[in-house]
Structures are given as C-alpha cells and as structure tokens.
Structure prediction request, 345 residues.
Amino acid sequence: MFEKFYPTELAVSSYDIDYERMYSKGMRGLIYDIDNTLVMHGADANEEAVSLFTRLTKMGYSVCFISNNKEPRVRRFYDGLATGGVCTDKMHYLFKADKPSRKNYRKAMEIMGTDETNTCFIGDQLFTDVYGANRTGIKSILVKPIDKHEEIQIVLKRKLEKPLLMAYHHRNRKKNDKKSIVLIGFMGSGKSTIGRALEKKLKCVYLDTDAFIEAKEGMSISEMFAVKGEKSFREAETEVLRGLCKDTKRMVISTGGGMPLRSENRVLLKKLGIVVYLKTSPENVIKRLEGDTTRPLLQRPDKEEAVTNMMRQREPAYKESSDFTVYTDGKTVDEIVKEIELMCL
Ligand code: S3P
Prediction:
C-alpha cells in the first residue's frame, strides 16, 4: 500500500553516493531535487556541489535539476555550477516542475537522452521526489535533508513521512535481520573498529578473519608471511570464508584488506551476507598506518606510493565484492555505524 512512496535506496547525503558503482552498472542520467538535497533551502551552488557535478559530468553522466520552485531560484543554482566550470552540455534544469507529476521526470530524460532503465532520481522528499520517480518507473535515492530547520509546510510533510519511513525501515530490517554484515576495505580503513561497534549494536558474534587466522596458526600475520609465505596466508583466508559460509548464525565479520583479491573469495563473501566496502582516501590510510609494523605488505620505504598503487589496483575487487560503499573520511565511528544501519539494517 505504501510501496509507491518507498525509495529504491537510502543515502545519508547526495555527496555520499557511490556514483562510480552506479555508472559501472549502466546508470547514465541523474535527476536531482535542489533545495535540501544539494544545498540548504534557497542557497547557491557551493564548492562541494561544483566538485560533485564536475566529477559526474566528466564520468559521463547527464544531470538535470528539477524543482517545483520558480526559474530565478533554479537558474541561480545552475549558473553557480556553470560559473564554477561544470560542463553545461551535460547539465540541464527544469523549474515549476509540479512534482510528483510525471511530466517533467519524462522531460528530463528526454533532454538527457536517457530512459527509465538508466536514470535515477535523487531527492529528500517522499511525497514529491520519490513518489514522482516511482510513478515514472525510475529508481530513486532518498537522502537526508541538509537543513534540519525547515519551513512550516515542510515540517508538516515530514510528520506525515515519518510513519512511512518507519514502515520502510521495518520492511528492510525484516528482509535483512538474519544476514551477516561483512566489512571489507583497504588496510587501515577501520574494519575492526566498525566491526566491534556493530557487534555491540546488533548484539551478535563478531569475527575478525585476521585474528582468527593468527589464533589458529599460533603466530602473527607478519610471522606467517615470513615463515610460511603470503600464499599460505591467502589459502588460510579462503579456508576461513569456506568455514563461515557453513555457519548459519548472524555475525559481524571484518576481513583482511586483501580478502577480495581472489575470485573465489569474492563469491564466498557475497554468500556470507551483506558486504560493506569501507572506503578511505590514500592520504588518511597513510596517516593512520604511520609507524605500523604489523602489515607485512607495507614494510617498505616507498610505503606511500605502495598504498596509492595498491588501492587503485584493488578498487575493482572491492567494488565487485560489495553491496555498497561507505566513505569513511572525516566521519566518526558512530556516524559510520549509523550510515550502515541506514543502508541495510
Ligand atoms: C592485508 C591486510 C591485513 C592482513 C594482511 C594482508 C592486505 O589486514 O590481512 O597483512 O593484503 O591488505 P588489515 O586490512 O586488517 O590490515
């Protein structure tokens, strides 16, 4: 009954969506609401917006802003992006769009040269943005409104949205409440810390594949690399995954940074549960791992270069293995856990 108001996905912010993953799956057109989705109500395009739309249009996306506001407001936002250097060939806008009417969602696709299969709507409101996208038959991502203090008519709408969102979360929780949560990502991306925080939250067993292997082998990973070699460690990693796949209870599992490199492991990871890719910038990884002596692969003089190269090489494997990405830069443990909760719990 409420399905028509349900978004395809949720995200904490328009700036935190894994657009690269969407593009690789064939998405080509992005339709955006502006106010409270990209900037505060009535605000001009800021640096963050310029940088996002430069990145998206360079990647190959066409974008279209559709707003129920009048032209001057929409134009001001659009001009801000254009002045900032975003390519206007791939950026369009429609004003007084009358959302949730289908008309302008369709017009946006026509202008962008996309269709229902490769277009996604991103907005912060259920009854206009998401409902309109569902009526048009396109995917939608509901983001959290940027500004918590809204005008009175929006405050009332939020009150009406609340029970629907609760029902939506309830449905998702029921769908996922038996599934394990598996954390993957580069060394130093916080997998163990987030794993332990999720363990507390979900009150279920937590397992760190590295710690498990160390206990089983009776030596540290560094020793294992030195004595038995990396190949033997990688074998042990696959063994752990095979074993975990036989277990049916819900767990939180954090994995070593190289786990998704083997194709067999990528299949096993997916079988295990919901796989979350914690993505951290090379700069932050380098900072966090300064002085670390426990990662044998990084005990080298050109550590910074090695981290950057390894991250680039591993990115496709991380993406292939995971269901979604959480960007960790600048976020607290609590924020990251809340984001994972929002996406799948
Ligand atoms: C490795 C990551 C390490 C550990 C081993 C190899 C890798 O785990 O499994 O040193 O290849 O990235 P963390 O990601 O927990 O540091």
Observations:
- The longest strand covers residues 273-279.
- The pocket of shikimate-3-phosphate is lined by residues 187, 191, 210, 221, 256-258, 295-297 (CB under 6 Å).
- The mean pLDDT is 96.
